[in-house]
Structures are given as structure tokens and as C-alpha cells.
Write a structure and sequence with these properties.
Layout lengths: L12 H12 L9 H13 L4 E3 L5 E5 L8 E7 L4 E7 L5 E6 L11 E5 L6 E8 L4 H4 L2 H4 L7 E5 L6 H6 L7 E4 L4 E2 L4 E3 L3 H20 L7 E6 L16 E12 L10 E6 L7 H13 L4 E5 L6 H7 L5 E10 L6 E3 H16 L43
Length: 397
């Protein structure tokens, strides 16, 4: 077997920072993602990478590998974010919200929003406030109000005091409400913003693709890129994957919180999440690549978490799956990450794309004989072929 050399590539942090801020400035709650997909498609086109769009809005692109046969791999990220939808026009001229995606109204309080009506030429701004928003009116009762979407409302930045006034503005039930991110990149490299999940991941992947193109490096295996638009509502990579894909790596936010090992300054390899463990062999392979090239990587396990690959597996994908992340403090709230962690993540993606599949011969087909699986009693497995081991089963004579 020919061993392919993997080489760290220069990572353009200026490009990463610019793409990230531009992505954050494009509102894209699940269900209203055309604009952000057009942006990503144009970024890919500028790199010389063509893309196509599915009926449901997912973008698919490809970096071809040197061989014409065998299995491929895929990197999956998502551009959709959490957000809201107008559930009801209220008698006081304010709006009741239904959340898009899973997030707490606790972190919505005070958020500046944009309300998208069917009139594309008009965008209305507003702010999410608790029902008891005046300290001078409610005093200590402000602190006693409960937390929940029924406890908040959108104050519209227009002179409106009733339902008729809202309708005159063109606002109706079902209009999308985007939470403004207010991104800030500090001199020390911290990135503070809503919706780093998963726009920082998208920026890291595009930066990795740029590094491959700029260096003239072809991936060892044809690498598909799938940018999904419904991850936050659970559909994710349920469609759009090439049938030849044998390995899927999702890139998404890693949880920085007490009891977690993820950190903002390094990349994260998720070993399991709320759906279950990720592929044994692919996760260990990614960890080995990081160790070999001194990529700062930590392992972690997440509880209340699912990603694009969960939807892919549930939809029937015949592939090994793993998840790489960038450490985010206060996920789905007032999020923060660091450019250094994103750099490590982009570098690891470059190294992974230069490496071969875990089992290039075995995984060339979706199934094979059990006796041919490259086992080593039985885990870990060895790509060179089967090995005898203490299985402990004696065949009858």
C-alpha cells in the first residue's frame, strides 16, 4: 500500500476572519437561507470550485481526487441558524414569537432583530423584550417573571399600537425574525457573536478549501462539500450526499462549558453526542492525524447535541461518521470562540483531506465479507488486512 504524505498548509487567517464576519452579517434562520447560500456559492466559485443546489437548498461542491474509482468522503457544514417566526400579532402592536431551532428565550431577551415581510424591499427592525420590561413600572416583579417564549415579545421599531397597525406594515404570521449577531473580533483573537454555530465552521471549511487550492494540493480521495440549510431543525444532511461517500465528517460548534473538555483555542474531536458514539475507526484516525502534525485537538462527548451526520445516518447513509468542532462558549446564547481554534480546525481539515480513507479497499463498497474486514482482534483495526486474534470461538469438528 502506498503511504501518502500529508503536509500542513498555510492557513489564511485574514480570509477566515473576513468570510466569517461576512457570513455573520447575512441573516439565515432555518427556512430563509437563499442569500447565505448564494454567498457561499460565490466564495466557492472564486476558488474555482463549482457547486450545485438541491431543490431543498443545500449546496454541493467537490474537490476531485486523483483516482477515478473507489469510495469518496464528504465534509458537511450548515449555514442555517436559530431564529424565530412571527406566531401571532398581538393586540398591543407587538409580536409573539415561535422559536426556530432549539434555544432558550432567556438568551433572546434584549436581542435586536430584523423582521422579514413578503415585501423584499422593506425590512423592519425590532427588539425582543420580556413582557415586564420596565423597572420603573414593575420594580421587583421584573425579576419574578418566568422564562419562556410566552414571556417575551418583539417591540417593533415603528409607530404601531395594535394589530391593524402591524398589518399595515405588511407583518403577518409566518414572517421570519432574524436575531442580529453583533459580531466583534477582539485584538486578542476572540470572536463574539450570535450564530457562530455554524458560520464559524463554514468559514473554517472555506479557508481549508482555499489552502488546498492555493497550495495546488489535490485531496487523496475525492472530497465532497455539502452545505446544509436545515441542521438547526433536525433535517441537516438527510439529502444531498453523493452515494459513493464512505466517510462523512461534520464540522460544527463544540461545547465549552463546565464538565466539557472543549476549549476555544483548539479544535475538538467529538467521540459521541446525544445520538450516540461516532465511528470508532474514523475518530481514532482523525486523532492520529492531529497528533502526527501537532494540531491542538481535544476529545469530548456531548449530551444535548446532534449534528448533520445524525440526519445523514437516519436517512440511510452507508458511511463512517465523525464530528470535528471549534470550541464555543455559551452555545446558542451569547457565543464566543477564538481564531486560534479555528486555525487548528482548518489545518486538521486540510490534513484529513490529504490522507486516505481509514480502509480504502474495504470501504470501496458498502458491504463485504466479514472475513475480509481488516480487524485486529477486533478493535483497533488495521488497514493492511485481517489479523488473527483471541476471539475465543472454537468451530465444531
Amino acid at each position: 500500500m502506498t503511504v501518502r504524505k500529508t503536509t500542513p498548509l498555510p492557513i489564511d487567517l485574514d480570509y477566515l476572519r473576513q468570510v466569517l464576519v461576512e457570513l455573520l452579517d447575512i441573516p439565515s434562520p432555518s427556512g430563509r437561507t437563499d442569500h447565505v447560500q448564494q454567498y457561499v456559492g460565490e466564495r466557492l466559485s472564486a476558488l474555482g470550485i463549482p457547486s450545485t443546489l438541491t431543490r431543498r437548498g443545500a449546496l454541493s461542491a467537490c474537490l476531485p481526487g486523483p483516482r477515478e474509482t473507489g469510495a469518496d468522503r464528504a465534509i458537511v457544514v450548515h449555514t442555517d441558524t436559530i431564529g424565530g417566526m412571527v406566531k401571532r400579532l398581538k393586540e398591543n402592536g407587538r409580536l409573539e414569537l415561535k422559536p426556530i431551532g432549539t434555544h432558550s428565550a432567556r438568551f433572546a431577551e434584549g436581542a435586536h432583530v430584523r423582521i422579514f415581510t413578503d415585501d423584499l424591499d422593506r425590512v423592519i427592525t425590532g427588539q425582543v423584550l420580556p413582557l415586564k420590561a420596565s423597572g420603573h413600572r414593575y420594580n421587583e416583579a421584573v425579576d419574578l417573571q418566568g422564562i419562556g417564549w410566552e414571556q417575551v415579545e418583539v417591540r417593533v421599531d415603528e409607530p404601531v399600537e395594535d394589530i391593524a397597525g402591524l398589518r399595515a406594515l405588511g407583518i403577518d404570521a409566518g414572517d421570519f425574525v432574524a436575531f442580529l449577531p453583533n459580531p466583534t473580533v477582539t485584538p486578542s483573537g476572540y470572536v463574539k457573536s450570535r450564530h457562530l454555530d455554524d458560520k464559524a465552521g463554514v468559514a473554517a471549511v472555506l479557508t481549508a478549501m482555499k489552502a488546498m487550492v492555493d497550495a495546488g494540493v489535490k485531496p487523496a480521495v475525492t472530497a465532497h462539500l455539502l452545505i446544509t440549510v436545515t441542521e438547526e431543525i433536525g433535517h441537516g444532511a438527510s439529502h444531498g450526499l453523493d452515494p459513493d461517500v464512505a466517510e462523512i465528517v461534520s464540522v460544527d460548534a463544540a461545547v465549552v462549558a463546565p464538565g466539557q473538555q472543549s476549549r476555544e483555542h483548539c479544535a475538538t474531536l467529538a467521540m459521541g453526542d446525544g445520538v450516540g458514539p461516532f465511528d470508532y475507526h474514523l475518530t481514532r484516525n482523525l486523532a492520529a492525524i492531529a497528533r502526527e502534525h501537532d494540531v491542538d485537538l481535544v476529545r469530548d462527548v456531548f449530551d444535548y447535541y446532534r449534528s448533520d451526520v445524525a440526519a445523514a445516518v437516519e436517512a440511510g447513509a452507508h458511511a463512517r461518521v465523525a464530528l470535528l468542532g471549534f470550541g464555543v462558549d455559551a452555545t446558542h446564547g451569547h457565543e464566543r470562540t477564538h481564531l486560534e481554534g479555528l486555525r487548528h480546525l482548518a489545518q486538521l481539515i486540510c490534513l484529513y483531506l490529504q490522507s486516505d480513507l481509514v480502509f480504502p479497499e474495504w470501504d470501496a463498497e458498502p458491504e463485504g465479507d466479514l472475513a475480509d474486514f481488516p480487524s485486529l482482534a477486533v478493535q483497533p483495526a488495521n488497514a493492511d488486512g485481517p489479523r488473527e486474534g483471541p476471539i475465543g470461538i472454537v468451530q465444531d469438528a
